[in-house]
Structure formats: structure tokens, C-alpha cells
């Protein structure tokens, strides 16, 4: 039942090694940034003091306690961070639901590993306007400070905000430029985002997605896929279940949420997770009139066990994710799917050898039933890289899924 045990403990160890190394690299980074800046500063001594002090919280933290109330750690954690995350006594006393009389609001355990960024992120005027620093905030979140601890200020917004287009027009209409704060992105309006495939060099996540009349128009939409194709269609996936029994679900890393829009046309409610990687994906999804969810792939999915009918993910789950994290994520998908629920793993990609050694056994170990399993070559970067795709339709067993 548990073949991945061996490789798992190995990869767990590698994961911790990686954490250890990255922590040390971070320290090195902080110290080198710091020393190079202090060489032009007139006050190297006070800077050195700061550095020593700053390193203490992450040291305290690496033993896993993460307790902000130890005196050493409180030295320079931002006061607003402590105001939020420290224990807060329940006004009505002990609560049996909590089994406690104190509330510890959650923040990402890794936040305190980045004391400099955390200080910067948490220095805002309480009750005032938040800094317009989305790009910086997202980097902090992606490093593991998730959920972000900023809570008591008003986020940047356009002064001339325009209300969204009404449904159903909004589903396939480019939203107003003024619905987005553009500071964090290379493009400063939707016209630029739509044209960036032609006008901008270099890689961008979902580069052609904002053009609703380009490739998005036809994704998953054809009636039937070609035999052996990696591109399943929504209709053939839904046809594997009794009509109407797929009603609610999740699209992980769903770009501009065309999947959710297509499903909405079939009266199915899909929540789409997305980051804002050089584009206002969350605003765009919301403007279309479907539900965005701003969480990274390392966050535990915020759904209860055995609740969703379908989980879909395209192009996001792949070999850039540490395999231990991927193992956690796959189990989390299994957890939130109801028995009989579908996991549509759409264009997972990796290198051929990795697939056989790591990913195939990993995916097979979770406990899904394979309804469809198609492997194909990924040639966009050249055949010599031996990259490949897997598209799979997996089902959580209806009986005995526990
Ligand atoms: C913010 O507003 C709350 C509620 O009115 C108030 O208690 C608090 O003192 C204010 N904080 C600051 C820093 O202005
Ligand atoms: C967005 O801005 C661009 C550039 O200013 C403009 O050409 C375009 O018409 C605007 N789009 C909308 C929907 O207002
Ligand atoms: C979606 O629901 C509406 C309202 O109940 C219904 O009229 C429509 O036929 C449904 N569409 C599909 C594709 O089931």
C-alpha cells in the first residue's frame, strides 16, 4: 500500500537539506548585501548590530517552535506583525469549540525567516492606506509567508475605478483598464497584455491568455477530442459521470479562468486559484464574473474533506515543484475531492526519466482510479530535451476511499 515510503523519506531529507541550504544562502545573501551596502555607509557598526539581531528570529524559528513570544524573537519582529499574530484572549473566556481561551491568528510560518522583508511589508499606517507593493508582497508570499500578515490598511485601488460589465457580457469581454492597479506589471493596460505575445520578448506565464479571442476562445471546447490526444474536452470528461453530478470544483493555477467560464456555461461552479505573475490575473478573473482565489500551490487547500466534485489543473503541476511538495499537494487534492470526484491532471510536464522514476509512482501511489492516462511528447523546446506531457483523468474511489 505504501511503496513511496523509501523515496519519500529520501526526498523528505533532501527537502530539509534544501531548506537548510536555502536558509544559509539567505543568511549569506543578507550578509553580503548588507556588507556591500555598509561599505558605502558611514555607520557599519550599527548595521552589524542590526544584522546580528535580525538573524536571531530565524535561528529561534528553525527549531520549529516559531513562537513569537520568546523574548529573543520579539526583538525586532514588526509590532504590527505581533499585534496580529500574538495570542488574543477571547472576551467571553474559554470556548469549548476552540478548547482554549486564546486565539492565535494564523500567518505563514516562514514569515519570520525573512525579517527584513517582513519589517518592510508590515510598516504601514494602521487604519490608513497600504503601500502599493504588490510585486514585493507576492514574492514574500511565494517564499512561504502565506497567508500574508498585512491586515489593517486599505489596499491600493484605481481612483477612477469602473464597475464591471454585467453578466453574461463580462465572461468574454476585456475588462476596463481602470479595474486594475498596474504598478506591479510590465504592461500598464489590457491592450498591452493582449498584444504582448507579438510585442514582448521573453517568457511570461500565460503570455497569450489575456486575448479572449485568441487561443482562449477554443480551449476544452470542442465536442470530442482526437483519440490519444492530450487535450481532453470538458464534455467528454463530464460524460464519464452521471449528468448533473459534477457541480462544484477547483481549477489550480487556472490562468484567466477560461476553464471556470466554460464550466459556468454548463452550470458548474469553479473557483480558480492564480498568482499575479506579471499580469493582473486575479482582477481579470473577477472581472469576468467567476471566482478567483489568491493562494499559491504550497498552501493547504481551503476546502473541507470530501467536498468537491472536480479538481482541474493545467500546465502548473509539473517538475518545477519540489517532489515532496507535489506529494503533499496530490494528497490534498485527494482529500478535498468527494468519493467519486474527478481529478483532471491536464498537461503535467517533466523529463521522460523523471516521469518513470518519480512522478508516475508518485501519482499512482495516491489512490486514484485511472479513467484516462495519455502520455505524449512535449516538443516546444526541442525533442532533445526529452520533455513529455501527461494528461490524466483520475477518479477518487466511490467506495472505500479512506
Ligand atoms: C485605528 O482604529 C482603531 C479603531 O477606531 C483604534 O482603536 C486605533 O487606535 C487606531 N489606530 C491607529 C494607529 O490609528
Ligand atoms: C486601455 O488602454 C489602452 C491604451 O491607452 C486603450 O487603447 C484601450 O482602448 C483601453 N481599453 C479600454 C477597454 O478602455
Ligand atoms: C443552466 O441552468 C439554467 C437555469 O436553471 C437552465 O435554464 C439551463 O438550461 C442550464 N444550462 C445547462 C447547460 O445545463
From TrEMBL:
Keyword S-adenosyl-L-methionine in annotation: no
GO molecular function list: methyltransferase activity
Entry protein name: S-adenosyl-L-methionine-dependent methyltransferases superfamily protein
Positions of region (Disordered): 48-73
Pfam families from the UniProt entry: Methyltransf_29
Record-linked PANTHER family: METHYLTRANSFERASE TYPE 11 DOMAIN-CONTAINING PROTEIN, S-ADENOSYL-L-METHIONINE-DEPENDENT METHYLTRANSFERASE SUPERFAMILY PROTEIN-RELATED
Biased composition (Low complexity): 55-66
Keywords: Glycoprotein, Membrane, Methyltransferase, Transferase, Transmembrane, Transmembrane helix
An annotated GO BP: methylation
Keyword flag Transmembrane: yes
TM helices/strands, residue ranges: 14-35
Amino acid at each position: 500500500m505504501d511503496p513511496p515510503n523509501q523515496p519519500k523519506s529520501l526526498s523528505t531529507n533532501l527537502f530539509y537539506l534544501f531548506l537548510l541550504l536555502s536558509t544559509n544562502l539567505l543568511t549569506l545573501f543578507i550578509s553580503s548585501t548588507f556588507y556591500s551596502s555598509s561599505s558605502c555607509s558611514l555607520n557599519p557598526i550599527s548595521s552589524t548590530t542590526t544584522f546580528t539581531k535580525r538573524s536571531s528570529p530565524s535561528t529561534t524559528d528553525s527549531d520549529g517552535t516559531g513562537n513569537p513570544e520568546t523574548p529573543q524573537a520579539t526583538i525586532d519582529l514588526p509590532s504590527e506583525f505581533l499585534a496580529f499574530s500574538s495570542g488574543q484572549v477571547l472576551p467571553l473566556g474559554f470556548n469549548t469549540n476552540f478548547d482554549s481561551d486564546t486565539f492565535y491568528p494564523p500567518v505563514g510560518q516562514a514569515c519570520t525567516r525573512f525579517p527584513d522583508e517582513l519589517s518592510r511589508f508590515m510598516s504601514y499606517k494602521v487604519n490608513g492606506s497600504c503601500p502599493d507593493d504588490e510585486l514585493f508582497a507576492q514574492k514574500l508570499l511565494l517564499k512561504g509567508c502565506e497567508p500574508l500578515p498585512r491586515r489593517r490598511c486599505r489596499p491600493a485601488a484605481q481612483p477612477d475605478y469602473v464597475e464591471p460589465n454585467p453578466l453574461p457580457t463580462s465572461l468574454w469581454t476585456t475588462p476596463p483598464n481602470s479595474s486594475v492597479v498596474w504598478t506591479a506589471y510590465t504592461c500598464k493596460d489590457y491592450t498591452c497584455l493582449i498584444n504582448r505575445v507579438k510585442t514582448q520578448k521573453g517568457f511570461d506565464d500565460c503570455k497569450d491568455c489575456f486575448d479572449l479571442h485568441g487561443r482562449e476562445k477554443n480551449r476544452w471546447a470542442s465536442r470530442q477530442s482526437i483519440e490519444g490526444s492530450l487535450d481532453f474536452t470538458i464534455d467528454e470528461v463530464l460524460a464519464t459521470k452521471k449528468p448533473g453530478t459534477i457541480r462544484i470544483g477547483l481549477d489550480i493555477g487556472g490562468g484567466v479562468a477560461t476553464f471556470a467560464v466554460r464550466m459556468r456555461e454548463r452550470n458548474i461552479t469553479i473557483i480558480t486559484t492564480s498568482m499575479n505573475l506579471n499580469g493582473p490575473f486575479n482582477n481579470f478573473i473577477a472581472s469576468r464574473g467567476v471566482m478567483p482565489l489568491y493562494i499559491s500551490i504550497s498552501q493547504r487547500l481551503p476546502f473541507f474533506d470530501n467536498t468537491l466534485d472536480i479538481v482541474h489543473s493545467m500546465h502548473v503541476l509539473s517538475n518545477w515543484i519540489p517532489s515532496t511538495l507535489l506529494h503533499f499537494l496530490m494528497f490534498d487534492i485527494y482529500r478535498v475531492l468527494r468519493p467519486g470526484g474527478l481529478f483532471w491532471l491536464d498537461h503535467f510536464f517533466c523529463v521522460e526519466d523523471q516521469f518513470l522514476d518519480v512522478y508516475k509512482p508518485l501519482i499512482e501511489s495516491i489512490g486514484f482510479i485511472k479513467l484516462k492516462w495519455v502520455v505524449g511528447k512535449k516538443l516546444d523546446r526541442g525533442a532533445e530535451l526529452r520533455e513529455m506531457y501527461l494528461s490524466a483523468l483520475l477518479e477518487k474511489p466511490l467506495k472505500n476511499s479512506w
